[in-house]
Input
Amino acid sequence: MAKPTIPTEEYMLSGHMACLGCGAPLAMRYLLKALGKRTVVSIPACCWAVIPGVFPYTNLKVPLVYTAFEVTGASISGLRAAIDARGIKDVNVVGFAGDGGTADIGIQALSGAVERGENIIYMCYDNEAYMNTGIQRSSLTPFGAWTTTTPVGKTKFWQKTQKKNMVEIMVAHRIPYAATVSVAYPEDFINKVRKAAGIPGPKYIHAFAPCPTGWRMPPEKTIEIARLATDSCVFPIYEVEYGKYKITRKVVNKKPVADYLKMQGRFSHLGEEEMKQIQEYVDREWELLLKKEEFTKEW
Output
């Protein structure tokens, strides 16, 4: 019998405090399945600072360090240095932060860590807003979205800028490995984390993790919406290994972006013109990604 792709051992226990349908626990579960028990995780202020339970309890079977919002990159740098100083070679050091703690508040520490070439894995679980503190916008909140700091109403003051591309920012640091993953595709998720663990130096993985509460969607639709995000090319699944791009889930028959948007209450105010604008942007980004893959194919 062939060996199963997904490990059966669990390092995230039941009894966590996440909301119904939350994608973030799936991201942690798959991460730890890939890395195993010889792993240390550093978590800043975010939903995952609450999900494990009230101190001193935790639902993780690996060491967990809580840090301030902005210092995940510095924290994992220190953990790596301490472990290396003791001559321990087989421990994975992981920073696990939300989109705000990665792309906004924590980007300076992350940039410093990868620029120094630290042998770490950094995973951003992206639910596209500051969900833990009340659904405020982040720089990873997509264009057109409602949040509590980008209200709709008569002002139409929804999110007006496009989502920051953190993978491209990390690729610009010339790191050896960067990738996107989604909780809808666990095999791809686990395989990429395993690959990252085997590559020396800094690795960045961007995980798509829907938030039913903040996205105004039914909790049972998390995986369906995550799949639709990829099938509509809103969230492509790809990796960049030493500068070489590879799309690991090719989309042949693209679904309309409107199908994805209409499943979420945070976009319910958008009209046909705004949806057309979003579709055009997604199409341009997808074509650009295809060209990058083609250009770097022979590297």
About this structure: The first strand starts at residue 39 and ends at 43.
